[in-house]
Write a structure and sequence with these properties.
Number of strands: 0
Number of helices: 5
Helix content: over 70%
Radius of gyration: 18 Å
Distance between the termini: 42 Å
Length: 142
């Protein structure tokens, strides 16, 4: 096979960059929807899908929603605009903390089925934090 007919493989760094963008967008969608729901849906309506909201103050539910919504924005906006793109990695770290706290909360309530999604989302957020810090950082705009 000559070099003219050999397929060109993507560089490992480019593959990680693409994978990070995919994960960032998926996480932003997931946390954005969850955060908006907790922030804007009336508490009595939230109870039907999230029964735990009756066991915590409404302000806490709203704070969690705001944290998730800001985390979703932080995963994408700084990287996409290349204005302080390192903030996307910090948003990933923040969402890891949110998911660890959520897993602990669900564990304390005996809701073992809720822990796996928390850990998966947290692991994906950790991948973004690691990737945008070490493997495929985005250069700031000049």
């Amino acid at each position: 096979m000559t070099s003219a007919t050999r397929p060109i493989a993507a560089s490992p760094r480019k593959s990680v960059h693409v994978a990070l963008w995919i994960v960032q967008l998926l996480l932003a969608a997931a946390f954005g929807m969850a955060g908006a729901m907790k922030l804007f849906t009336p508490i009595p309506e939230l109870v039907t899908s999230l029964p735990w909201v009756t066991d915590v103050p409404a302000a806490m539910v709203r704070f969690i929603g705001l944290s998730e919504l800001l985390g979703a924005t932080g995963l994408v906006l700084p990287a996409a605009t290349r204005i302080r793109p390192q903030l996307s990695a910090l948003a990933g770290v923040g969402l890891v903390v949110v998911m660890l706290l959520a897993a602990g909360f669900h564990l304390s309530r005996g809701e073992g089925a809720m822990i796996a999604p928390n850990l998966v989302l947290g692991a994906l957020a950790a991948f973004v934090a690691w990737g945008r810090t070490r493997k495929a950082p985005i250069a700031p705009r000049r």
